[in-house]
């Protein structure tokens, strides 16, 4: 076929974030048992309720079986061969950024997330997480003036333990699923956000997760609470070095929105995806869920999933409050031997609740890309509505796309609408664009962004541009 | 007039071109030379190789040139990518313009126009300047501004698609335009608009190849030459009255030429 050479030239485009930071780290021994959990908890100087929370979760996890219903193909994970705590060695107490190891600051600089006072992003507050610990959180004082708490979850455990005790595990209970139980037992760090009543968070909040170590898992835990009539937009980015082994990332994210509160949670996931033969890459097994507890509350998930060897996640909404709103906008792109099984669950419990699902899956190479979603109307969800649209785009003839929409309605006075489509970038479409002077690669990326436009429109501005570029980069050389 | 044309170098030279797709020979020795200011019409039965010839000149990846050359402005372009050909001034008006969902027509036209402008060392246009330019060109094809915000060709009627092709041609200002059955499926008004658009871009510097089945387009735009194709070859070349004769006698008449040769 045409352009075959071109394809070969660009397919080698390296993963930009694949470097390793050479830094002295403190790691605990491999393996998972009660002692390890006690050790993690001790290192983080946690109160007893949290240790109990972890131990209970661990007991549950031991009785659970790793799920296999998604039919994902991967070598069995040896949970005893993972390091559950790894942190760069630092001074005991860091009072300012000046005391942070310059190597760490340099790492985040290289990732495009400058943290120092002079260089930090001006419109976004950042919590930077490196392996198991949070390195720095910017704009804390400014946010505190508005009563907004934005810090690592480890700090929140120390300084806001009442909130942690009240909310942790209330959206995703430890027994929810195998990986949530594992996370609840060993979670290391992540972000904590609290928006007080009536406050619209003055800037976007963002967490950047960096896996650096090759043999330790990352078990991030994030909790966001939006009190009555408050609002926040939160962004999450992730990258990891290139290793030829697989690294497990099993995160839990919980969102809680009270009356009239709104949370917008956006992810650009670009974990290392493994090489063309499928060697290495992150296993991204994540539980993300939001609870629309209050009346007219709103939780909106938007995600651009381009990385990871395997992505297995369903950011979901429990719509309890009357007239609450759940949204899920997703672009999942897989190439080479990547596998993605992603979608959402919209559980309508309260009356007049509304949900929207827009999912765009793009599969290239030999990858498998599945949308799996559940829309459920409970007995009290009278007058509730859902609209789902799931579109797949195939690039090349070796990739596959699946759609598994599950619909359960116990409420006759509710509406569920589902649309699905599959398309393929055809040679004729490419030729048409090329014959108008548009370069081959640009033609592909124009068509892919066109396909994803509904979702990109939902992303915060800076993210949308980044997502567009990221997709173009990921797709280079996948058509031929 | 014609003798003056010949003084300059040809825009396009197709020399003894053989081409195939999936090892099936389609073109069997086509030669055609277009000088600046000339309008050529190519006629012939469906399947005779007219569309293939146009696609090969534009660089369609499904066809292999097995023998012969295509020269554009005296340079051999056999191995150029389609986008390089387009940037340098070859335009193909599609018989069936392709729908591209999600890609806005405006953005498509702008990226395309800028690719050509870049080649010509002209300044690339931002959204505002492009809007100005496109507004003026929309007049030519009598298209509403609303066309620009729709996805490329998606949900366009047959006539709208063809007018969109002429709009692209007007924006790209090609050196040579090959219009593959741009007139088919058009009502009389649309045909007049398309013909007016073609006239607008044709000048002493450009060449035009009209692939058509119908005399009615050639009534609007009088060609300098008419070529009749059959089974992958040009079997007869004449002046504009050849088209009239063909219209009267039908393609069966041309079968005799093959017997003669």
Automatic annotation (TrEMBL), chain A:
Q: SUF system FeS cluster assembly SufBD core domain location, by residue?
A: 209-451
Matching InterPro entries, A to Z? Answer: Fe-S_cluster_assembly_SufBD, SUF_FeS_clus_asmbl_SufB, SUF_FeS_clus_asmbl_SufBD_core, SUF_FeS_clus_asmbl_SufBD_sf, SufBD_N
Q: Which GO terms describe its biological process?
A: iron-sulfur cluster assembly
The family database entries (Pfam families) matched by this protein are listed as: SUFBD_core (PF01458), SufBD_N (PF19295)
Highest taxon in the source lineage: Bacteria
Residue stretches making up the SUF system FeS cluster assembly SufBD N-terminal domain: 129-200
The family annotation for this protein states:
Belongs to the iron-sulfur cluster assembly SufBD family.
- Which protein are we looking at? Iron-sulfur cluster assembly protein SufB
- This chain's source organism reads Prochlorococcus marinus str. MIT 9302
From TrEMBL, chain B:
Does this entry carry the keyword Nucleotide-binding? yes
Q: Please give the PROSITE patterns that the UniProt record associates with this protein.
A: ABC_TRANSPORTER_1 (PS00211), ABC_TRANSPORTER_2 (PS50893)
The record ties this protein, via InterPro entries, to: AAA+_ATPase, ABC_transporter-like_ATP-bd, ABC_transporter-like_CS, FeS-cluster_ATPase_SufC, P-loop_NTPase
Q: Which residues cross the membrane?
A: none
Show where the ABC transporter domain sits: 12-256
Pfam families the record matches: ABC_tran
Q: Does the keyword Nucleotidyltransferase apply?
A: no
Q: Which GO terms describe its molecular function?
A: ATP binding; ATP hydrolysis activity
Q: Which UniProt keywords apply?
A: ATP-binding, Nucleotide-binding
Q: Which domain of life is it from?
A: Bacteria
Q: Which NCBIfam families match?
A: sufC
Give the similarity note: Belongs to the ABC transporter superfamily. Ycf16 family.
Q: Which PANTHER family match?
A: ABC TRANSPORTER I FAMILY MEMBER 6, CHLOROPLASTIC (PTHR43204)
Protein name as annotated? Iron-sulfur cluster assembly ATPase protein SufC
